[in-house]
Description:
By secondary structure, the chain is mainly alpha-helical.
Amino acid sequence: MDVLQRYVSRQPLEVEAFFCMVETTAELVGVSERYWSSQGINGARIRILVEIAKAGGTILPSALAARIGVTKPNISVLLVPLEQQGYIRGVSDPEDGRKRRILLTEDGENLLLEVLPGNRAVIKKRMENLNADEIQLLLSLLRKLQLRKE
């Protein structure tokens, strides 16, 4: 156990930074999830709607799955309640009629316009621990890590 304790308590700087990012991310996601919960909304469903909006209001299910990090079969399951609630609908792809696209409906747009400002305010408040220069540096560093592919 002593060897294990030394191993888990003395991390190389890179590993310490990684786990600090993971813990901080989990904490910040928790801030956002508590907001969604207080609104009676599923945060994962909002994320799907946001990704569709970011894509211009329509997206292929496979592209959506890739954006949110789920498998193609799982995206179908995740979309069902959003379609039942009228926030999205399936439409034929104008370029390839065999494909279906997911379209953000007016109700979906209205939901996002209603709930996103409050969520963004909660996140902004949590990020106020950093000044503008620190946030720019953080963004720069995170983007640098994103560019490095295995």
